Automatic annotation (TrEMBL):
Gene3D superfamilies recorded: Cytochrome b5-like heme/steroid binding domain
InterPro entries hit by this protein: Cyt_B5-like_heme/steroid-bd, Cyt_B5-like_heme/steroid_sf, Cyt_B5_heme-BS, Cytochrome_b5
Taxonomy of the source species: Eukaryota, Fungi, Dikarya, Ascomycota, Pezizomycotina
PANTHER family, alphabetized: CYTOCHROME B5, CYTOCHROME B5 A
Name of the protein: Cytochrome b5
SMART domains in the record: Cyt-b5
Family as reported in the entry's similarity comment: Belongs to the cytochrome b5 family.
Superkingdom as given in the UniProt entry: Eukaryota
Amino acid sequence: MSDSFTAKQVAEHKDVDKGLYIIIDGGVYALESFVDEHPGGAKILKRVGGKDASKQFWKYHNESVLKKYGEKLKVGTLKEEAKL
């Protein structure tokens, strides 16, 4: 797990067919294998696919959830992009 992604690359993975990626605090997570297991339902994950879901994640979860699932779902990190 050493891949780094731009926000644009993550946005291309916005649904299960293309690989459902989300960003949480700069980490990129692939959720297509987890969608059906998510206790809150698949709909919420599909809604944030391809986006930074940090705000939504921390609203409903604590750090233990990220520790439990993060290692197996994390596929990389978000690249820093120059703001012009």
